């Protein structure tokens, strides 16, 4: 499946830091965001799934009480890209197991409204391992275990900066999260929902 989007968004009355009272905001500014997004997803084989995406935006201030007309909006990355692949076994001794890996790229963004400094781009690597418990026992149909790991290289990066303050937030360090979930549909209802 291929998806492509072109957009041109105009917004008025954007909340902006009050130049007189820095901890308050006023609705004065306007902005225009133009850009495009592209995504491709599909299965190379039944077992091998791939998802890729890219987006580019041009977010500009079109009206500014503080004199920032023509500057880039603070915060949004101008370019973003991602690639994800997952392989799931449906037969043989590994049936039910799935492994996946991906990479995310976040490009330059501006750290302040006057565009005096740029938040540098960064690239993160992620991975996942999953197991469908129905392959272990048929009565466990609907149950799935999964472990997700993000920022595998434990990269140190700046994620965003706050408006009007000399403070930037660091990105999330390496994170590993395990989940156990159950899902069902109308054709295979959860036993607890069946009235006798």
Sum this structure up briefly.
The protein is mainly β. Helices cover 0% and strands 56% of the residues.
Task: Using the coordinates shown, work out and report the CATH topology.
Answer: Maltoporin, Chain A
Radius of gyration, CA atoms, in whole angstroms: 23 Å
**CATH class placement:** Mainly Beta
How many domains make up the 3D coordinates?
Answer: 1
What would you call the structural class? mainly beta
Quickly count the helices: 0
Question: What is the terminal-to-terminal distance?
Answer: 43 Å
Order of helices and strands: EEEEEEEEEEEE
**Count of DSSP strands:** 12
Mean pLDDT: 89
Strand content: over 45%
Can you tell me the CATH superfamily? TonB-dependent receptor, beta-barrel domain
Poorly predicted regions are 189-196
Specify the overall morphology.
Answer: elongated
The main sheet comes to: 8 strands, antiparallel
Main β-sheet, spatial strand arrangement: 1-2-3-4-5-8-9-12
Please provide a written account of the structure.
The strands form 3 sheets. An 8-stranded antiparallel beta sheet has the order 1-2-3-4-5-8-9-12, with no helix packed on it. The chain has strands at 2-17, 25-43, 48-63, 79-88, 97-106, 109-110, 118-119, 122-132, 143-150, 158-161, 168-170, 175-182. It has a single domain (2-193), classed as TonB-dependent receptor, beta-barrel domain (Maltoporin, Chain A, Beta Barrel), CATH 2.40.170. It has 196 residues and is mainly β. A hairpin with a 4-residue loop joins strand 2 and strand 3 (48-63). It has no helices and 12 strands. The radius of gyration is 23 Å and the shape is elongated.
